[in-house]
Design brief:
Order of helices and strands: HHHHHHHHEEHHHHHHHHHHH
Shape: globular
Oligomer: single chain
Largest sheet: 2 strands, antiparallel
Helix content: 55-70%
Radius of gyration: 21 Å
Number of strands: 2
Strand order of the largest sheet: 1-2
Number of helices: 19
């Protein structure tokens, strides 16, 4: 039980750090795996961390307009405008409820039935993965409506950044300009910090004004009621997240943006425009993220194929404990699956209770000028961005994306489209090569 509580608290802390999220939190654990008394305790801690951080990353997205993780970027579109209108508690309450409900639902389905799902993966091929990725690109562009061209520009910039690294066909350096550091491509964390967080912080410092604070005494219950009223949307968001999570390598950003696009497509004549504070724009993507985390573990555990970036870290952590995911011998140890179930469900439920208890105090963050906590935010962003090597190269890349991100921000190039394309580019390129080789 102590592992569950500690893992949940650690996940909560990681989740509220802007631009960090489950992946960064799990990377830090590499230095502490020796402290667990056995592998089952470690699994409980890891799964609780994943579940808690995935719910808690909503705080930064709603209150600061900075994604707590790349998968929380979609929530910003309507969550942050709600906070600026003094309805942060409404957005957070709805987000927590939708995330927790779908996390519990899909956590039960996945971790109780994990041993019986191996046959499904035989029906998913490269062509299905290619089309679902293309669909994600379309969704993130259509969100912009008449300004779709800004989404296309974001996709093109994302492709350009994704091309930097090593050519998957020739295995030769590509667009590295002779810099060996770039042969592995740009790292995700400095891109998220520079493109999303820094421009938002700068704008906050230059143009901050206290948001109008409405009476929030009933917003907690109103957020829960909003999810109940839009339960179908929440469930469909969870289903989208579950499907995307099951497809290896796509990650949470895809499911959240598809869910957000679905929220728009299924809303007739909205009273409040999306992007201006429509609560359905929070409920849909937040229903998706926890479900995606659960189903991402299907291919990771059964086949040793990471369902998302965080799942690759989980594989590495468990190797320290001599647990090799994808090994058929894994199914002879039922306690492993029981530990996963307990850690994920427990972390999902406990973090929700903590967040609801602290909801109103945390909402007061919206009344504090961002300049007062800018130094701490900047330190956290730099720390999260220089974990790759810790050398001077990491700082150069962070500075590059800080400058580039602010330019993109001023040009109003779609940052979500850029981020989504960058995350998916490597897999999309490999899938495209496979399809061209097979069918042409």
């Amino acid at each position: 039980m102590i592992e569950l509580i500690l893992g949940t608290l650690y996940g909560l802390l990681v989740g509220i750090v802007p631009s960090a999220g489950a992946t960064t939190g799990l990377v830090v654990l590499y230095s502490f795996m020796y402290i667990f008394p056995n592998e089952y305790s470690a699994i409980i801690f890891i799964m609780a961390t994943i579940a808690a951080s995935t719910t808690a990353d909503t705080f930064a997205s709603v209150l600061l307009g900075i994604p707590g993780a790349n998968s929380a970027a979609a929530t910003i579109q309507d969550g942050y405008p709600l906070a600026k209108r003094g309805k942060a508690e409404l957005a957070l309450s709805a987000a927590i409820t939708s995330s927790t409900f779908n996390g519990m639902l899909w956590g039960i389905i996945v971790f109780m039935g994990l041993e019986h799902l191996s046959f499904i993966y035989n029906y998913v091929g490269s062509i299905q993965l290619w089309f679902i990725t293309l669909f994600a690109f379309i969704c993130v562009v259509t969100v912009l409506g008449k300004k779709w061209y800004l989404g296309v520009l974001g996709i093109l910039v994302g492709i350009l950044l994704g091309l930097v690294g090593t050519d998957p066909i020739t295995n030769a350096p590509r667009l590295t300009f002779g810099w060996q550091y770039l042969e592995s491509g740009f790292q995700l964390m400095p891109l998220i910090a520079g493109v999303f967080a820094i421009p938002q912080i700068i704008d906050g410092i230059l143009g901050w004004s206290a948001p109008v604070q409405h009476d929030q005494k009933s917003y907690k219950l109103l957020g829960i009621y909003s999810v109940w009223k839009n339960l179908g949307l929440s469930l469909r968001g969870g289903a989208i997240g579950a499907i995307i999570g099951f497809l290896p390598g796509l990650g949470g950003a895809v499911s959240d943006w598809i869910s957000y696009g679905h929220s728009i497509a299924t809303t007739r004549k909205p009273k409040i425009a999306f992007g201006k504070g429509n609560i359905r724009g929070v409920i849909g993507p937040e229903g998706s993220n926890n479900a995606q985390k659960a189903t991402s573990m299907i291919t990771t555990v059964l086949f040793g194929i990471p369902g998302a970036p965080f799942a690759a870290i989980v594989m590495g952590l468990l190797m320290y404990l001599n647990i090799e995911l994808g090994d058929p011998a894994l199914f002879y140890d039922a306690q492993i699956f029981e530990s996963m179930l307990f850690g994920f469900l427990g972390g999902t439920l406990v973090v929700a209770l903590i967040m609801f208890a602290l909801l109103k105090p945390i909402c007061y963050i919206t009344r504090i000028p961002i300049k007062f906590f800018f130094p701490a935010l900047l330190a956290l962003l730099v720390w999260a961005s220089v974990q790759y090597t810790g050398g001077w190269e990491d700082y150069v890349i962070f500075l590059f994306f800080t400058i580039a991100g602010y330019i993109f921000h001023k040009l109003k190039i779609s940052k979500p489209a850029l981020l989504l394309t960058f995350i998916l580019f490597e897999r999309f390129e490999l899938l495209t090569v496979q399809l061209l080789t097979r069918y042409f």
